[in-house]
Amino acid sequence: MMDKVKGNDVKGRKTKRTCTVLALACTVSFSVFSLSACSSPNSSTTTAHQEATESSTDSTKINQTYRVEEIATFDEPWAITKLPDGKLLITEKQGKLKLFDPVTRQSVDVQGVPKVAYGGQGGLGDVVIHPHFAENQWVYLSYAVQGQGGYGAEISRAKLDLSNPRQPKLTGLEKIWEQVPKMSGQGHYGHRMLFDFEDQLWVASGERQHFDPAQDMNSNLGKILRLHDDGTPVEDNPFSNQGDVAKQIWSLGHRNPLGMALDLEGQLWVVEMGPEGGDELNLIKKGANYGYPIVSNGDHYDGRDIPDHDTRPEFQAPAISWTPVISPSSMIIYQGEQFPQWQGKAIISGLSSKAIVIVDMSQAKDNIAKEVQRLDMGERIRGVISANDGSLWVIEDGSNGKLLHLTSK
């Protein structure tokens, strides 16, 4: 099957459906939450783009213009976040955390990173900072480890010591969360993190390519989790009376969720990879079951059918699904000023699609979302964040993954 390499997050294409919007009413709203030059400052490349999703007269399509500048190159970058001063933290999958200065275009390794299990889709994963980083200097890292039973993701936090700018380091590293149980294989860790407006830590945990854990309440695999900033479960989570693991769970029935973001109303959205077909963007509801592996708008890689969402209305359907897939890898909801047509919309990075996908969720009350623009990036895109000035930082996937800067045209 074309493009089907699970270990690299590349997915096959399913042809029996095209991009499908499924409408089920929902009205959730909750209040959340060695010094080295990466590239020469004189070697950057700037190009202008103006792309739409497709040639269409659909009035919902937009055509926001933008400019792309190549800034630096990293080795298998996986995640990116910004510090209050505009510097960037970038994880490299083999286990390095880079502190990058956009002004000098220089990066330096951050010392004290935990050991990771590199291989398949595993390694050093996500990085986020605490909402009160200016006061507590906490940085959160997710990563794969090997242990009894196989592999799993962990999250640790540490203080980022910048007292010596040339030798940044993590201090006081402590593990605060882990996937249970550990499983064979090195895929579908998920392990994306997001802080909400109440300083609660949301974790997207993949089902580790083992299907059934997504429906098992004794496992935190295939779930969206809501934790305090120290990794303990929030007390009013929906399954708090069903055991220690279930206490963490906010929603279940997820496959490989790789992007989380809050919209302008404080609602949580999650984008996840489907199997062969059926990537999903979901509006997350407290206690809801999103159906995987019982239902999906995709099928198994071996060709076995999975019933579609519309056959089982007891499961929460996606606001939009994609076939052919986009292979989502991260997501933000844009709130900046540089790209006015993207304000309030989801910006989703895509791997096999080699694209950035813009999605309008203004019909969230009807559980409907619409793709309104697609930026052809020409390479697999691993992550995207908004800079302090409303421009976008984008990282490509792979051993020579570029750091790109998107600005208004």
Folded structure, characterized:
This protein is mostly beta strands. It has one domain (6-407): TolB, C-terminal domain (Neuraminidase), CATH 2.120.10.30. Helix content is 1%, strand content 40%. The chain contains one helix and 26 strands. The strands form six sheets. Strands 1-7-6-5-4 form a five-stranded antiparallel β-sheet, with no helix packed on it. A five-stranded antiparallel β-sheet has the order 2-3-26-25-24, with no helix packed on it. Strand 17 (268-273) and strand 18 form a beta hairpin. The longest helix has 4 residues, at 133-136. The two termini are 39 Å apart. The relative contact order is 0.17.
Concise synopsis of the structure shown:
The chain is 1% helix and 40% strand.
Low-pLDDT residue intervals, each spanning 5 or more residues: 1-57
CATH architecture grouping: 6 Propeller
Cα-based radius of gyration, to the nearest Å: 20 Å
Main pleated sheet:
5 strands, antiparallel
Q: Terminal Cα separation, in Å?
A: 39 Å
Strands of the widest sheet, in order across it, are 1-7-6-5-4
As for the number of domains, it is 1
- Structural class by helix and strand composition: mainly beta
Averaged pLDDT, please?
89
Helical percentage: under 10%
Domain Glucose/Sorbosone dehydrogenase: 74-404
Signal peptide: 1-37
Organism: Acinetobacter sedimenti
Pfam families: GSDH (PF07995)
